[in-house]
Amino acid sequence: xxxxxxxxxxxxxxxxxxxxxxxxxxxxxxxxxxxxxxxxxxxxxxxxxxxxxxxxxxxxxxxxxxxxxxxxxxxxxxxxxxxxxxxxxxxxxxxxxxxxxxxxxxxxxxxxxxxxxxxxxxxxxxxxxxxxxxxxxxxxxxxxxxxxxxxxxxxxxxxxxxxxxxxxxxxxxxx
Length: 175
Description:
InterPro entries: HotDog_dom_sf
Pfam families: 4HBT_2
Largest sheet: 5 strands, antiparallel
Protein name: Acyl-CoA thioester hydrolase
Organism: Dyadobacter beijingensis
Structural class: alpha+beta
Number of strands: 5
Distance between the termini: 40 Å
Number of helices: 4
């Protein structure tokens, strides 16, 4: 069993609160561009473990499969600064038989300022052969339960999504 949470209990969005570490910053006291990936991926690993009871290691061990990164799209909207508390949100916005697109975004602690948006496209592979393989039914059910509804990824432009996230944040701030 890859997931301990019930499908009906799985939220589509996960959020973490983290502090920007001195060691990850450049001389201008901004989070180094390459470190955003570490913050996003570490947050997602913690989030899916906590919310869904999922372990990447269990998928590797039990199914002999994993997801590998195929492509990234990232926008650095505003810098994250040394010692700043930020919020990292992650969510699946698209999937098919062997592909998953995870959307990440970072905001300030109050969720009023967008800092970064990342789309990561991952392919599901057999770890022995390195070849793409279809998701098993348990994974398809998980992706179906956790994919953000109403996102037409096939016709969505990255910059339009950045604008939509900014609008979400503005609406949340005024509520």
